Amino acid sequence: MTKGNITVLGLGAMGSAIAERLREAGYTTTVWNRTAAKTGPHVAAGSQAAATVADAVTAGEIVLAVLLDHASVRERLEPVAAGLEGKLLVNLTTTTPNEARATAAWAAEHGIAYLDGAIMAVPEMIGGPGSRLLYSGDENAYAIARPALETLGTADFEGTDAGLASLKDMALLSAMDLMFAGLIQAAAMMRTVGVSAADTAEETTAWLGAMLPHLRGLASIIDGGDYRTGGQSVDFTRAGTASLITASREQGVRADLLEPQGKLLDELAATGRGADDWPRIIELLTIR
Ligand code: FVH
What we know:
The protein is an alpha/beta fold. It is built from 13 helices and eight strands.
């Protein structure tokens, strides 16, 4: 028994994984891709291919956009706004929060129920236990689409501001990027004495694993808003960061990845905050 008609726009690595999962879950799927040849394997597996975006939009009650970026979504959807009227559009394309809000406003103008999504998974994870997707925007649309969306992974509704899913996505990806940059820095330093990146990755994995519980302690200082809790101070951390920068340079390795934190700590010390807990850095990050 089929469960409904879902259109997937975009058959890159992620769109393909999503279309495949929806088929497995019993949905009738219509697929469209700019490079039409990519629809072949999906048609062979049971999907229908649409020749145009307009045809694809007509076929689905729910339309999932899984394109490259905000510009490609708007380029493809704006010409078919009339066809989307009364339908439910879920945009799983990575965008900034303001891009998501702009698309939500555009959808509202055209009578399109809009959900913005952020995928916290890689294509191989879709439908598996570790896959998590965030949604924000039209709550009623979320309630309707939820059974289908839950086949892709854990579904979390973040709120009616369409930018919220993207904001959390960007925040978590920021944390991830800084962590991965940390491995690059460590590997650059260790290879100066012949240690492989693989060995440094093993050591880094163990070390960061041991440090992860400290995230909650830092968060509690930030949420408390009192930066005199007796935690690790700006002065202490500043000296430590200065040592990291010096050690890196002594090994002939640029310290560009470490320097930004050093600069922020210097700024706090220069304004008389040296004895404060070092997470006070967060107060400098707000652009005023
Ligand atoms: N892959 C991943 O691990 C990440 C996980 C987190 C979420 N992202 C986001 O998902 C969106 C799609 O990513 P993807 O992995 O499918 O990306 P690609 O394999 O590069 O496929 C891109 C598709 O977009 C089509 N496309 C590009 N430009 C246009 C355009 N101007 N008009 C219409 N379609 C366009 C492209 O078509 P084609 O090149 O095959 O003709 C692909 O279908 C993305 O936002 C990630 O950030 C994935």
